[in-house]
Automatic annotation (TrEMBL):
Protein name: Transposase IS200 like protein
Pfam families assigned: Y1_Tnp (PF01797)
Signal sequence residues: none
GO biological process: one example: DNA transposition
UniProt superkingdom: Bacteria
Organism of origin: Stieleria varia
InterPro entries: Transposase_17 (IPR002686), Transposase_17_sf (IPR036515)
Length: 177
């Protein structure tokens, strides 16, 4: 049973529960633009797979007490605009999204090439005032990629957000083998 602090203090000692729980006073609005690609940036997210994959990823985010505000991408990568819970470490949340979605995709669609995500990801904090712009950016992925590759887009995002990187290591494990 939950009791507000002022209500508890107004109770007689004989009326008070032995253990009083207080409603949490933690308030967050943790919004992130998250980007990751398929392993080797292969074009594995087909039009048949895409809507079901996006729906499944949304379910994973909800299972982790978050909400998926937008999702989009093209055949070789996805962008998520998500509100995540502080209850789960950020890296754990992304690991669960990637592991569970790739496992589900392989079991459900049995693709020609085993589906895997790249090892890492990009994640960028988003202010509430930037949500409309980030949403539109994610929704317009098809048109963005008529002009630039995922690699160019990703580099530009890192630079825009002040994230230092070494070019030679950026996609080192991601080349076709």
């Amino acid at each position: 049973m939950f009791w507000k602090a002022r209500q508890t203090s107004q109770l007689r000692s004989s009326d008070r529960p032995e253990e009083v729980e207080h409603v949490s006073s933690t308030h967050t609005n943790l919004l992130f633009h998250i980007v990751f690609s398929t392993k080797y940036r292969r074009d594995l997210i087909t039009p048949e797979i895409q809507p079901r994959l996006y729906e499944y990823i949304g379910g994973i985010v909800r299972d982790q007490h978050g909400s998926l505000l937008e999702i989009g991408g093209i055949a070789n990568h996805v962008h998520l605009l998500a509100k995540l819970s502080p209850r789960i470490a950020f890296s754990d949340a992304i690991r669960v999204v990637k592991a569970n979605s790739s496992k589900w995709l392989n079991e459900t669609f049995q693709p020609k090439h085993t589906f895997r995500w790249q090892r890492g990801y990009g994640a960028f904090s988003v202010s509430l005032s930037s949500v409309p712009a980030v949403t539109q950016y994610i929704q317009n992925q098809e048109s963005h990629h008529t002009k630039r590759t995922f690699e160019d887009e990703y580099r530009a995002m890192l630079i825009r957000h002040g994230i230092q990187f070494e070019e030679r290591y950026l996609f080192e494990d991601e080349h076709f083998q």
